[in-house]
Amino acid sequence: MGGCKMFEGSFVAIVTPFKDDGSLDEEKLQELIEFQIENGTHGIVPCGTTGESPTLSHEEHDRVVELTVKTVDGRVKTIAGSGSNSTAEALRLTKHAKDVGADGALVITPYYNKPTQNGLKAHFMEIANAVDIPIVIYNVPGRTGTDLLPETLADLSVHPNIVGLKEATGQLSRASQAVQLCGQDFALLSGDDINTLPILSVGGCGVISVLANVMPKEVSDLCNTFKSGDIQAAQRIHLETLQLSIDLFIDTNPIPVKTALQIMGRLNGRMRLPLVPMSEENTEILHHTMHNIGVI
């Protein structure tokens, strides 16, 4: 499978909307997906970090993925978040993603139990061998306490079902190493909006974006203009959106992005504990940046 041909462009790490009583807001989720597709987003990623997957029940997780696939209806790609620190649970979630028709699965490195490199390899191979679905590995050591090293990634990339990496180490050298070790067909996707343009420049395919929740057109335009060879246009978008990309991490993700959507009138801003609303001071900073760049 050629990863870049499969997963290219702007993939939104979509938020999971909750009603005021804390339950899943299915109508709002469908509304947000339509907003994304109308604005040129190339794919939807439900049940990632930004989708508050740690606080979704198994039933809710399954429902969000199923509803996303159904709503998208083949118009763009769906990469379902299906990772866990339990290999058996990650396997179940990945099988479910395959069964309901997702185009791919985003599988995070196991968190908290801190497997060795051999353990990481065994985890991903177990899933890739059992489920015939394109898998994008998600490496974000800042959240998981585990770092999938480039050599381990290279070994895994040989498997036909392991087609890409969401690179969120914050080390730009890792993006270049991924392309060097895994080849141009491997779908290298930025996991940090501030690094999308640099990662595209070394052979990356796109981004799994938090910013796209708020500015879907701009993120898809950045990817499209870069692909078409208009590097200056891509640079301009990168610089125009840079401050918001930074401010969306002024607090733990997805607190700022849900707050931004609330400011825009697209969401009630409801999160699940242990996440709590932003301080007034940070909300004011976010509001100011959104106003400055014309989002509101």
Strand numbers in spatial order across the main sheet: 1-2-3-4-5-6-7-8
How many β-strand runs? 8
User: How far do the termini sit from each other?
Assistant: 41 Å
Instruction: Please tally the helical runs, counting DSSP H or I stretches of 4 or more residues.
Output: 13
Q: Could you report the average pLDDT, rounded to the nearest whole number?
A: 97
Quick structural gist:
The protein has 296 residues and is α/β, with parallel strands linked by helices. Helix content is 47%, strand content 12%. The longest helix has 17 residues, at 231-247.
Keywords:
296 residues, 13 helices, 8 strands, alpha/beta, single chain, globular, eight-stranded parallel β-barrel
